[in-house]
Amino acid sequence: MRVVGLTGGIASGKSTVSAMFRELGAHVIDADEVARDVVEPGTPGLEEVARRFPGVVDASGRLDRAALGRRVFADAAERRALEAILHPRIREEVARRTEALARAGVEVVLYDAALLIENGLHRGMQGVIVVFAPESAQRSRLAARDGLDEAAITARLAAQLPLADKRAAATWVVDNGGTLEETRAQVRQIWEGIR
Hints:
- By secondary structure, the chain is α/β, with parallel strands linked by helices.
- It has a single domain (2-194), classed as Rossmann fold.
- The chain is 54% helix and 13% strand.
- The chain contains nine helices and five strands, in the order E-H-E-H-H-H-H-E-E-H-H-H-E-H.
- The protein has helices spanning 14-23, 31-37, 44-52, 65-74, 76-103, 135-146, 150-158, 163-168, 180-194; strands at residues 2-8, 27-30, 108-112, 128-132, 172-175.
């Protein structure tokens, strides 16, 4: 089985591109989805996060992502503490899902992860797709999507490797600064090349 990384900056359109690959038949393991699963109520992951970050579990026993986000994006040490709890659990679950797909005969899996390059996960993969959008587009999307002010947007952008640096590690780049049809055409071409 070949594993190809899929990454991009926050609000670069990575989720949109991931959905386009799925429409073409790609098997995608989404790190964000796995990250949510490892902190579901009753999991050891949620228990450890709740111990380390008091006040981030809501009345229904679910993780309050907004409250946690305010803490970890405002303080790099807090973000590293959260990553130390979550990343080993995410790696273990991703490995389990990848092995299940390999047993099912799947030949190519896309691993969709925002911090793929920052965490060195791209090493050993059979290629990396980077979704790129101009910073101005990222900023306007974050403001519209999440209702963030400029300071919060800047903090979130600073928490990730600049897109230009991610592009340097790319095997393929999807320029998501144009229309959806332009993006879809690039995705189709890349998928045909990977297959």
